[in-house]
């Protein structure tokens, strides 16, 4: 197993523990979950802080969501395609929020590159500071968002002739609404992906106003 493969394996084993314990997770817990000796962690990570940073970067990595998007069949009706896309991206956002939220609550602040803006749903903090080492850069985040937008636009493309705007613009609205959803309070249920897509495609009016 190469160093990169071992790092990826350790990060994958650590992510659920970070979600549960935050940065308070111990390297002995991580080693047990990964089925390795504790010393193996420090042969591929300089220290626990580097491992926590790798977990934050992996939580933000959209590659899994992109694979889900590209696996959606364009033979499905447009509403079904967009529901599947909303489910895949919603799962990615929940995973990212859980991991980053747990680290944030433990006092860990993800370092941002100079000029990088907070991501959707991520609040700036006084502990944030520009990163001088490796990590997700502002340019990398923009490329990731562009790749997600292009994948959604490809799902919309077969129905171009039925739309009032081009698929790229539809994808922009889709992502903007999806990322901007606010948590509800009280007993009101969270909108389902089906409701979200129905409002995106048809609005909230029961009929056209006079």
Taking all Cα atoms into account, the compactness measure Rg is: 20 Å
Distance between the termini: 68 Å
Largest sheet: none
Strand content: under 5%
What can you tell me about this protein's structure?
- It is a single chain.
- This protein has two domains: 1-60, Arc Repressor Mutant, subunit A, CATH 1.10.10.60; 61-210, no CATH class.
- It contains nine helices and no strands.
- α1 crosses α4 (48-60), α1 (3-21) packs across α6 (78-105) and α5 (63-70) packs antiparallel against α6.
- It has 210 residues and is an all-alpha fold.
- It starts with a helix and ends in an 8-residue tail after the last helix.
Secondary structure layout:
Blueprint: H1 3-21, H2 27-34, H3 38-44, H4 48-60, H5 63-70, H6 78-105, H7 138-156, H8 167-179, H9 193-202
Helix pairs in contact: 1-2, 1-4, 1-6, 2-3, 4-6, 5-6, 5-7, 6-9, 7-8
Short description:
The protein is an all-alpha fold and 210 residues long. It is 60% helix and 0% strand.
Descriptive terms for the model:
210 residues, mainly alpha, Arc Repressor Mutant, subunit A, 2 domains, elongated
């Amino acid at each position: 197993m190469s160093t990169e493969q071992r790092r990826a394996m350790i990060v994958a084993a650590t992510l659920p523990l970070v979600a549960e314990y935050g940065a308070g997770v111990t390297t002995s817990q991580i080693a047990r979950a990964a089925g390795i000796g504790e010393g193996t962690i420090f042969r591929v990570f300089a220290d626990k802080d580097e491992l926590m940073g790798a977990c934050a970067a992996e939580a933000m990595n959209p590659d899994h969501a992109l694979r889900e998007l590209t696996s959606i069949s364009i033979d499905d009706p447009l509403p079904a395609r967009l529901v599947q896309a909303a489910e895949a991206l919603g799962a990615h956002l929940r995973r990212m929020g859980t991991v980053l939220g747990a680290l944030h609550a433990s006092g860990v602040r993800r370092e941002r590159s100079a000029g990088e803006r907070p991501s959707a749903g991520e609040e700036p903090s006084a502990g944030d500071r520009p990163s001088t080492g490796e990590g997700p850069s502002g340019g990398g985040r923009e490329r990731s968002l562009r790749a997600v937008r292009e994948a959604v636009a490809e799902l919309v493309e077969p129905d171009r002739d039925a739309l009032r705007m081009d698929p790229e613009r539809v994808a922009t609205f889709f992502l903007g609404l999806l990322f901007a959803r606010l948590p509800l309070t009280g007993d009101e249920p969270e909108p389902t992906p089906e409701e979200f897509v129905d409002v995106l495609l048809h609005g909230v009016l029961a009929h056209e106003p006079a």
